[in-house]
Each structure stands twice: as structure tokens, then as C-alpha cells.
Design goal:
- The chain is of the alpha+beta class.
- It contains 4 helices and 3 strands.
- The chain has a 3-stranded mixed β-sheet.
Length: 110
Amino acid sequence: DNTNHMVSCTKLAEGFSDSVSLPKEEIVKFSFRYNAKNIILAHNHPFGLANPSASDQISTIELKKALSALNIYLIDHIIVGKNLDALSMREYGCLEEFVDQDWTYLASSK
């Protein structure tokens, strides 16, 4: 809500042991359904570390840009690893603006 209290939490996608599709349309619909101005995403790496893959980084930045165009702010994207370790993509630096940067920068910078 407007005071950053959680209004809803739901599973929007289910993936495989090594991948999940980030359903941008479902995330946007969910955001509109609850009139969300801010969202936090989370997913797990059930058989690995909480480190974001290149695909995690790219899809998160693409989603952030799409949401931003709709005046919705992606606060964070949390990854939980197999040992219940967690990583904030915001703290990791993955939500920074990469204006005019090559996507390979994202994949190789961390």
C-alpha cells in the first residue's frame, strides 16, 4: 500500500529445477489488481546458490523498465538458495540503472 505494507503475496509462476519464466504480463496484472505502486519479487534456486544468473539479471532489469513505464517501482528481487541463504538483487547491484550498457556487462560484472 502507500505506506509500504504488504497487501498481497502470491505465486505467479512455477519453474523447473534450473529455470523459471518471469511472467511479465502476470506481474503487471497482479500489480494493477492491487493498485500496487511498489513490488518485491522473490524466487528460489532449489539446487544452487542464491547468486543471480545472467538470465536473472537481464529479466529483472527488463521487468524493472517495463514496470517503471507504468509508474510501478520494483523495490527488490530476492533469490533464495538451497541452503536458505538469500540474496537481494538490489544490494547486489542488479537493480541499478545501466543506461546504454551492453547486456554482457550485467552477466560479467559480478
